[in-house]
Amino acid sequence: MGGQSRRQLRKGAVLPTRTPLADFDSRYSDPGASATDWEPAREILATTELSWLTTVRPDGRPHTTPLITVWHDGAVHFCTGPEERKHKNLDANPYVVLAAGPNAYADGLDVVLEGETGFLVDEHDVKGMTEHMIRMLNDPQLAGQMGARAQDRIRTTFSREVSLEKLWNIILACKEVKTRKGPATPWR
Questions:
Q1: Bridge partners of 80?
Q2: Three-state SS at 25
Q3: Going by CATH, does the domain composed of 6-120 fall within 2.30.110.10?
Q4: Where are the domains of the chain?
Q5: φ and ψ at 182, to 5 degrees?
Q6: Does residue 51 contact residue 14 with C-beta atoms inside 8 Å?
Q7: What is the pTM of this model?
Q8: Nearest-CA neighbor of 16 among 129, 166, 151?
């Protein structure tokens, strides 16, 4: 974590949990090509070691940087510190593009996502949280959009059905490990 405390690191989620819509332009592809299904793209995002994040500087110029990403609960996550350029850019403009894949001309699948992050605020920054709450109070459209995304994320990430499925998968994984390796050893 580069010597920074957990409190100093910021986490941003790039993707909503619903299946994104593919934006496919056949003019720039082979005649028989079609949009990639979400599952192979999601697999790339879940297994990639390095992604490229593009944010927008205050003067409108793009800023692209390589970074380590993690797929968790249906979204790509990354960390950044408050003094980093990408954090400053995201404070002013939540729109991003994330690219991931093998980056090879004739091999593999490259995935490019366009999305929007939420507000980035340090967990103890009461002034920053207050400023963002005032911003939402003064912009009902922004508040509605963020509220709808939050409801969608809660529904698709924390619903009873999703939680039971996660628990069931944990039970099955434990059962498989126990079957392969004998009795489980408790963690210490």
A1: 10
A2: coil
A3: yes
A4: 6-120
A5: 85, -160
A6: no
A7: 0.54
A8: 151
Closest CA to 21 of 102, 113, 108: 113
Are 20 and 113 a contacting pair, CB within 8 Å? yes
How many other CB atoms are there within 10 angstroms of residue 167's CB atom? 10
pLDDT digits (tens, 9 = 90+) for 31-46: 888 888 888 888 888 8
Give dist(CA 33, CA 37) in Å, integer. Answer: 12
List for the chain the helix, strand, coil content (%; round to 5): 40, 20, 40
**Residue 30: which H helix or E strand, with range?**
none
In the sheet where 95-100 sits, what is the strand order? 62-67, 51-56, 95-100, 111-116
Reported residue count of the chain is: 188
pLDDT, tens digit, 9 for 90 and up, residues 106-162: 777 767 766 666 776 777 788 888 887 888 888 888 888 877 777 776 676 667 787
Three-state secondary structure of 87-115:
HHHHHHCCEEEEEECCCECCECCCEEEEE
